[in-house]
Design a protein that fits this description.
Elements: E1 5-6, E2 9-10, H1 11-26, E3 41-43, E4 46-48, E5 51-53, E6 56-57, E7 68-70, E8 73-75, E9 81-85, E10 88-92, E11 96-99, E12 102-105, E13 115-119, E14 122-126, E15 130-131, E16 144-145, E17 152-153, E18 160-162, E19 167-171, E20 183-184, E21 186-190, E22 194-197, E23 200-203, E24 208-211, E25 219-222, E26 226-229, E27 237-240, E28 255-259, E29 269-273, E30 278-280, E31 286-288, E32 295-300, E33 303-308, E34 320-325, E35 336-341, E36 345-346, E37 353-354, E38 361-364, E39 370-373, H2 376-417
Parallel strand pairs: 18-20
Antiparallel strand pairs: 1-2, 3-6, 4-5, 7-8, 9-10, 11-12, 13-14, 15-16, 17-18, 19-21, 22-23, 24-25, 26-27, 28-29, 30-31, 32-33, 34-35, 36-37, 38-39
């Protein structure tokens, strides 16, 4: 039920929408709302750094209370936008500049990410990734992203300008020759997977991450799963990590991710293996299904690896030379049970390599030493012997006390009989 209606709209709903919109805008989330509230956004058409901002506000129908975007947010009190029309700015002032229907200030985000300085409502120094259309005035959009291919038309001379698809850095183009064809920025750098050709961005070979020209031999870096077959700092062909077809640049069998050695004739260095294989890095990295003696299979930082039995950090046991993998349900501490130590003595349970054997065990073995529990009969004899000693000790101490007392009396009597008269 609507408690109050105003201009044919439910006030309660409008207030809720306004509160929700302001909350979402404060979190850099532009939300489009239908209505006549000048503080709400009609169109979220300004994209800056991957975030959407308002490009047109809802029109209240009154010039005095009309809203327009300032720094991407709708407001009716706009000191830098002194001329508005149907929810957009038509003129910017001071150190602000026009972009996609709104005025943005250079002293704060998001404006300062596009323009370094602005004078009298016009951007005069762009940030990297942006350019200034020639002859732009305070009534024109005076900044454009290098990769924005949407054409703009200057109100002052009707000439058109645009960015270049996939372009990341560019220079301001020469003034457009006419009012029909848009003049594109001069691109100087492209996003990954493209290279600059005739001021535009052209696709690299499908295996290249970056390149200098078309063709598989012009790669400068490679996509995941490939490595560069070239000396350090050079360019060449991107080769699959598991490929062994390139004699001078061999890959590694069953390898999924790798890095180049940078030296001809030397195999790539594998960093992650294909499914069902483990990366073994003792010596030359390889991908195996059986880790072999002295190692156990595990997962480290989401990568399947063969880890040394003595690698305590990754589930091994310090000083362990040989081990067996525990069942997953029994891995409260170490992931393995040690079967042989490098120099110390193997504990009875195989959970440690000890410097000395604990009570109830004795050292066995000449080379591979272990702490072996004493036989049950020996332990029983030792326990009974300790009980016997425990009972005998008080009697021995009492007997020693009696002897000491008798000796003391003897000395006193003997001394009195043979002392001086």
């Amino acid at each position: 039920v609507c408690r109050e209606a105003r201009d044919g709209a439910c006030v309660e709903h409008a207030e809720e929408a306004r509160a929700e919109t302001k909350e979402q805008l404060s979190a850099n989330q532009c939300v489009e709302v239908t209505g006549s509230d000048p503080s709400t956004c009609k169109t979220c058409g300004a994209v800056i750094g991957g975030t959407k901002y308002c490009s047109a506000c809802n029109d209240s129908g009154s010039a005095s209370s009309s809203g327009a975007p300032t720094d991407g947010v709708c407001t009716a009190n706009n000191a830098v936008c002194n001329a508005k029309s149907t929810g957009v700015c038509t003129t910017c002032t001071g150190s602000s500049f026009m972009f996609k229907g709104g005025c943005y200030r250079t002293g704060q985000d998001p404006g300062q990410t596009m323009c370094k300085t602005a004078v009298n409502g016009v951007c005069t120094s762009p940030q990297t990734g942006y350019f200034i259309p020639p002859d732009a005035t305070k009534t024109d959009q005076s900044i454009m992203a290098c990769n924005d291919t949407t054409e703009i038309t200057l109100t002052s001379n009707s000439k058109k300008y645009k960015g270049v698809l996939h372009c990341t850095q560019c220079n301001t183009p020469a003034t457009a020759d006419n009012t029909v064809t848009a003049k594109a920025a001069t691109c100087t750098a492209c996003e990954d997977g493209y290279f600059v050709a005739s001021a535009a961005c052209t696709a690299c070979h499908s295996s290249c991450l970056t390149c200098s020209a078309e063709g598989e031999s012009s790669c400068k870096s490679c996509k995941e799963g490939y490595f560069l077959g070239a000396t350090s700092g050079g360019q060449g062909k991107c080769i699959q990590c598991s490929s062994k077809t390139e004699q001078n640049w061999p890959g590694v069998d069953n390898c999924a991710k790798c890095t180049s050695s940078g030296q001809s004739g030397t195999a790539a260095s594998c960093t992650e293996c294909a499914d069902n294989y483990y990366l073994k890095t003792d010596g030359t990295p390889s991908c195996v299904t059986n880790c072999g003696e002295g190692f156990f299979p595990t997962t480290v930082n989401s990568i399947k690896k063969c880890v040394s039995c003595g690698d305590k950090t990754n589930g091994g046991i310090q000083y362990c030379a040989k081990c067996s993998l525990k069942a997953s349900s029994a891995r409260a501490g170490a992931a393995v049970t040690c079967t042989e130590c490098t120099s110390n003595k193997l504990s009875p349970l195989g959970d440690a390599c000890l410097a000395t054997c604990p009570a109830g065990t004795y050292e066995t073995g000449d080379t591979n030493k272990a702490c072996t529990p004493l036989p049950h009969v020996v332990l029983l004899v030792l326990r009974r012997w300790r009980v016997f000693l425990h009972r005998l000790l008080p009697r021995a101490r009492a007997e020693q006390g009696r002897r000491h007392h008798k000796g003391h009396l003897y000395r006193r009597v003997h001394g009195s009989l043979h002392g001086p008269l």
